[in-house]
Structure formats: C-alpha cells, structure tokens
Design a protein that fits this description.
Elements: E1 2-6, E2 9-11, E3 17-24, E4 32-38, E5 45-50, E6 57-59, E7 67-72, E8 77-82, E9 91-99, E10 102-105, E11 109-113
Parallel strand pairs: 2-11
Antiparallel strand pairs: 1-3, 3-8, 4-5, 4-9, 5-6, 7-8, 9-10, 9-11
C-alpha cells in the first residue's frame, strides 16, 4: 500500500505545475483525498480536498481560484493543478487519503516559486 506524490519543481511566479498523488495497493476512489503543504518554519496546512462519491471539492482561501483538484479513476490518481503560482506557495506538498479512520500519507514533493 503506497501513496506517491510527485510533480513538484521550480517555477517562476505566475507559472503552473500539476501535482500527482498516485495510489498503489488500494483504490483511491473510495477515499477522500487532501493536499497539504508545509512551508519552512510554518505548520502544515490544508490546501484542497476532494470527497468520495459526489466528488465535492474545497480549497483554502489562499489558493481558491488558482488551484484545482481532480480525480482520474483509471489512473488511480488525484491531481492538483496549480496556476498563477506565487512565491508564498513555496512549500513541500503532501497528499493524504482517508477512509473510515484509516489514512495514508505520501512523501512530499517540493514546490519552489521563485524568479
């Protein structure tokens, strides 16, 4: 059972990145999935969430209108499309899958927004 986050990198302000959260050993569609981030010297914060079933989404105010979370059931993957990136988006991004009190964390992927 594994959750793998990937897609981070260095991007200029205003640029875009797409993060992937791929599951192996379990079906991600049955889990609510969240993206979190932790910037240097700061606490981990929730960025975006997608539910099971109806796929309702939610976003932190700081990313609303710029980030989009989505599922690809065929690839057993959840994505976080990040547009109009700002330096304050720089952080290690983690994905989490949770269902009935059981949760999995992926290793983080570093996003650096800098000119």
């Amino acid at each position: 059972v594994q959750l793998q986050a990937s897609g981070g990198g260095l991007v200029q302000p205003g640029g875009s990145l797409r993060l992937s959260c791929a599951a192996s050993g379990f079906t991600l569609d049955y889990y609510a999935v969240g993206w979190f981030r932790q910037a240097p010297g700061k606490e981990r914060e929730g960025v975006s969430f997608i539910s099971t079933g109806d796929g309702r989404t939610s976003y932190a105010n700081s990313v609303k209108g710029r980030f989009t979370i989505s599922r690809d059931s065929a690839k057993n993957t959840v994505y976080l499309q990040m547009d109009s990136l700002k330096p304050e988006d720089t952080a290690v991004y983690y994905c989490n899958a949770i269902r009935n009190g059981v949760d999995y964390w992926g290793k983080g992927t570093l996003v650096t927004v800098s000119s």
